[in-house]
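Here is an idea for our session: we take a single protein and study its fold together. To get us started, please write out a protein record for me. Start from the sequence, derive the backbone structure tokens from it, and show both lines together. Go ahead whenever you are ready, and we will take it from there:
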Amino acid sequence: MQKIYLLTIMAALASVAVSQLPADVEKYHRACLDESKVSDDELKQFFQNGMRASDATENIKCHNKCMMQKMGIFKDGVFDADAKMKELMQNPSMKGHEAEIKQALNDCKNEKGANECDTSFKITMCLKDFSKPQHA
């Protein structure tokens, strides 16, 4: 179960195949494609290959930052873990998992990169790593 809700966090932080996106997130995704100069195919390939950090181009990292900004969880280079927690707790499937989600968000919120795109990406990768079995 923990993997399911942490994957939900990941889906909300990073864009997935367009056909799987809710309407608002798809709108953000489309706007961020233009802003970050990344293609849908490039993003889909990144996700299909398991979101390996070594495969992420600067454009993919900047798309991630753009999405987080539009969702109101990344402002001025800072991840707003409280805003993300509040958003996640509106999802009924997250109920009862508050402590684990809070731990994941708090453990990852202070990741820093070379720039804002890199920082947002490092936060996303931290959350992705948190969902692996050693944290179960």
